[in-house]
Amino acid sequence: MDNNTSSFYKVDRFADIEVLRYKVPGFEDLPLKQKLLVYHLSEAAIEGRDILFDQNNRHNLFLRKSLEHIYTAYAGDRNCAEFRAFECYLKQIWFSNGIHHHYSTIKHKPAFSEKYLNELLDKTAFKGDSSLLRKIIFDANFDTKRVNLAEGEDVIATSANNYYRNVSQKEAEDFYAAKQAGYPDGQAPSFGLNSRLEKDADGNLQEIVWKSGGEYGEIIDRIVSHLEKAAIYAENDKQKQVIDTLIDFYKDGNPATFDKYSILWVNDTLSKVDFLNGFIETYGDALGIKASWEGIVDFRNEEATRRTRTISENAQWFEDNSPVDARFKKEQVKGVSAKVITACMLGGDCYPATPIGINLPNSNWIRQVHGSKSVTLENIMQAYAEAAKGNGFAEEFYDSKDDLEAWYKYGFLTDVMHTDLHECLGHGSGKLLPGVSQDALKAYGACIEEARADLFALYYLADEKMVELGLLPDMEAFKAQYYHYLLNGLMTQLVRIPLNERIEEAHMRNRQLIAAWVYEKGNAANAVEWVVADGKHYLRINDYAALRKITGELLAEIQRIKSEGDYEAAKNLVEKYGIIPDPVLHREAHDRYESLDIAPYKGFVNPVYTVEYDNNGCPADVKISYDEGYAEQMLRYSAAYNK
Ligand code: ZN
Hints:
This protein is α+β, with helices and mostly antiparallel strands. 48% of the residues lie in helices and 14% in strands. A hairpin with a 5-residue loop joins β14 (608-613) and β15. α2 (32-47) packs antiparallel against α9 (217-232). The longest helix has 24 residues, at 401-424. It is globular and about 75 Å long. It starts with 5 loop residues before the first helix and ends with a helix. One of its GO terms (molecular function) is hydrolase activity. This is Dihydrofolate reductase. Keywords: Hydrolase, Metal-binding.
């Protein structure tokens, strides 16, 4: 397979989903010991998949196994419309780790008939409970939504997840409030993180704990055995302690042990290989108490981490040379050196849909006392960018072939550089005047703060210092980001806002604010304009140097607003530029986007790792391959790592 085209990244397309694959650059160059560490941690990351299916809904595993039975056993026509609808449905179930959509959490609707399902069940000699299966799939009022957050409803009783049984919201809240009583505010261990709460026949509440010897005990024992093998290849004592303490947690099921593990994990900053494994994020529980199972394995991307180090080592230069008034600059600024990682394996709630950035642990008191780890999954970002090439999006919206080529050449590079500058320098730059409160800008504060960080990044992307430091190849690169940023802020990001609605989210507001302000000043100076052709708007930039200067002016003004706590100015700026989309561009963005048929949601298949042995039966190498398809991988996981 050609590894350098967008077709490498594209694996499958169904419903509202596109499945991609990601590369793991640098895996081949790891020493054998680290490869074996990655291998065993990866096995541990895949192993918990069925825990997540069962957490999401008590019928999910029965449903998946029944559908997989039909899918593999059916010998009839697999090309007819109804079978293809059945196949699409199964692919959706796999993707969302259960019957509810991974994002909306609403139950999937089958596009095949009950009659057709009966035919499939007959022809594949299905032995299970077919009436339950029909109820799960076709009864629209049964387990309708996985997580119900509707105000005024009992969010526990009406959510279809498997975290509570026969328990009301009030009972669950009281149960955990009582557990936390006696601990100083926010210092209690995360009680309830790894258990289901249910009421027994006598009406007593009890926790069914997910641990070795408890619920999911067999799967957890297999995870533990992979972790024990991984511990043999730990890079250092600290990392071995991290793994050992996680094993302790899986064995005792005590949330306090999980806190111990989290503290060790956050302090292990030297190991090259890193991982997450356990009950971590709580989005799947309306009360935010129960954590879904997930796993990720990764290693530090040295080149990218050098990049963020270079930026933060030069933090003072950037601060001193910014266009901001000297009164608002920090005399001593410290850059943050972000960690950039290469993901090697995604599991549980990070698979197939995955985050591109992670900031953990979630426990507030651990974050305050011990800090947190913030990482960017750069190879995942790269896969998104590569797969998007040729999806027609940029071709539809870009003004000229030159703009388009510049985007393909510099787009990804300047995207990550923009993020680095934003995170490592932007948020940390500048200072408040004495007596000004952090919260002076109230509801506008978040938007102004994001604008400040974005502007700092935009301003410096166009600075020769970036080329001098070896962070950008030339003085052309920034233009691709300027073009993209303005087009996105003025128009293309509006595809995510329903027509006639306002922009609410702080990052989206900040992007429109910057783009609209820079456009207004830039247009007056003939530096940028909208050109209309065939009834469509195309952004044309005539003078990048002028736009950079205008960007600096806005940065200076936003920093003044922040430093002085000028609420009225913040309000005027955000209200005038950041909130109301241009109605013509808004509608046009929707119309043009819809004609492209781009999947709104994306996820990934994993690479396959295979250990090779020498003549003595000792591991000699770990090979990575990228040729597994989506259904193929799902069926293999279901067969090899099941409950
Ligand atoms: Zn930010």
